[in-house]
Amino acid sequence: MKLRTYIVEDNATIRENLIGTLEELASVEAVGVAETEDEGTQWLSTHSEQWDLAIVDLFLRQGSGLGVLAACRTRRPGQKMVVLSNYATPDVRMRCAQLGVDAVFDKSNEIDALVDYCVLHSSHPPGVDASGSLSPPSGA
């Protein structure tokens, strides 16, 4: 099963390379992209049934990835939010954790870790446990 992934990244070269790498190595399907906080926030909130993973850069052409993350704090169970940034400092990682981010990856040296994260989550999609059986609904 492909991991439906939405990417918020304003650098076209990085975005296209990332999509190519993840689609080739991690069973990821890019369902959309945004270059600004407003585009990312609007799409993720109005298409909540259409994505499993959002990959968000922090520094965007307009706005900030932090705004996108804050807008998605109440996402559906099983949906993952990760940050891919050149500024993955301890302070940034702490702020992301406060916003409910599932993982933070540094663009300069943690792309392999992001690929591994996507592989793990594409093999165990939301609602399906490790055996491939449907998980009981939360609260059951």
TrEMBL record:
Please cite one Gene Ontology biological process associated with this protein: phosphorelay signal transduction system
Tagged with keyword Phosphoprotein: yes
Q: Which UniProt keywords apply?
A: Phosphoprotein
What InterPro entries would the database entry show? Answer: CheY-like_superfamily, EvgA-like, Sig_transdc_resp-reg_receiver
* Record Pfam families: Response_reg (PF00072)
What PROSITE patterns does the record tag this protein with?
Answer: RESPONSE_REGULATORY (PS50110)
Identification of the protein by name: Chemotaxis protein CheY
Annotated organism of origin: Acidovorax kalamii
